[in-house]
């Protein structure tokens, strides 16, 4: 896709300035350069590695930005060309988990090297000159890719130069990206998101930005008669190397299980969506406004005009390089000009197991459509068994019968709510289905949408947004004929909306399907194309009129390309989702003591670390199992000690959440001792409060995005 450009050398004087400033920066602690913009706010910029010229400028800019403007988040700057120590990796992981933005500076190395580092940090590798990374509240990474194109084609550069214009562009794009994330963080902090049930899918938002490229178009339109014309004088760049492309796209990776009770089929899905009406990005930008000029002028009745640049067409394609992968859905379909695209990509997803671990509050909002098999049929039996079991329990010698009766009556109600399979929060064993959807909404303006998706040796989703020059160019003229005294330009500005030159985001959604047993990785080529052109028109004398006679277009096609690699082995989401149990307002979690995992294991509290000895599964039978050994269940002993023992299905291994307390089937609530041991307590008012945290999905090497 075009020629590969060579790395540009840094001017010696700039390199010396960088070296001097870097040496000054390195006199500060490597991971704690504190740059306070206001005395009442303490915010740090962390630096890992020796800053590049870009890094120095960025740190200066961020340190001078007033925090009252809410334009920056806590950031960690990393020179991706430098070696990163293991301890620094741990620090970066902690910062990412605590709402810090990581800036990977790849201005001194290839974009592929940034991709490798990104994969090590987050499990997902993306190539870029500058890569911004943050994590959402559920620890799913989000990315902003910034690419600076330094050659005439739209190929990826090996490295970027330190020209002042390039630095200015990259700094602007970086601070702009930080500001957009700050704004979204501010909004989210003022509104509580709805509680979502567990889903066998993960969504990865990516912003792709290419900046500073040319748009070569025809220079001069020449006509010889009414039928013969040509373009001469080579090509020129009316964009002045300031064209840009910004796209927000979402990668959904979904694992569906075939179920007999629903219409869902088994399979693994990749879906890529751009919705222009909802965070679609800035789209393609050539110029703020096209311009008119005369390339030849003899008189108003004999002249040649030039107009541009405008986009003759845009195109997107996503092609599987694996013949076993099938195109499942590609929207929109063929759509005429000046239409409203409003369509939805829908996938019926099925899964078995536990749908949702109840929140530690009364809030619940779950839109999943659920269908149950044996759990529904047996709900009365389960409820009656729970009543019989609870009513037959023996009294504890240290508590009155009245107290225990009250506890049992309360627990009966919990079990009724917990086992009643008509309520989403009851976590029944069963078959669940829901519709995973993505909407695509936008106006096509003067572009017709042509769906060119096809099934072949490597299925392909493809669209062209085309002005259809041959069919409609005659309508773009100001006049067909005009009186001799006319001085109007050949092409009418009103025929070109901003979608033709200033802002257009192609909206689409494509879904590919792999078989449920697909294990080998698959690659997809994700291609974005624009064809900027100049329009030429000839005005000729025709007796008592001017005739707006010949017209033509001339330009170039530019292409951005990415290769996505999906490791289907990683796309194996299973319900229930592992979780950790954390003591309220403490950094202490339910923990299996090392070396004790056998027929009976000790359980205590230990500093939260999300390792597997702190991960648990809540089963459909109200058991809490260890991720390390699915045959070991949390158990309440007769002496109220809490241990990990072989699963036996008895009530002392049944558990339910009551707001922020964990209640055993015998009625005791989990609490702690002074030495961080766990025990049950009959008096819930004196028991401990807990929070559970879902363990983030394993995204390591799930998705890799390379530059073509």
Automatic annotation (TrEMBL):
**InterPro entries attached to this UniProt entry:** Leukocidin/porin_MspA_sf (IPR036435), Ricin_B-like_lectins (IPR035992), Ricin_B_lectin (IPR000772)
| Pfam families associated with the record | Ricin_B_lectin (PF00652)
Q: Where is this region: Disordered?
A: 391-410
Indicate what this protein is called per its UniProt record. Cytolysin
The segment(s) forming the Ricin B lectin domain are 579-693
Q: Where is the signal peptide?
A: 1-32
Q: Look up keyword Coiled coil and say if it applies.
A: no
Recorded hits in Gene3D superfamilies, A to Z, give:
Leukocidin/Hemolysin toxin, cytolysin domain, Leukocidin/porin MspA
- Which controlled-vocabulary keywords does the entry list? Signal
- Sequence ranges of Polar residues compositional bias: 400-409
Native organism is Elysia marginata
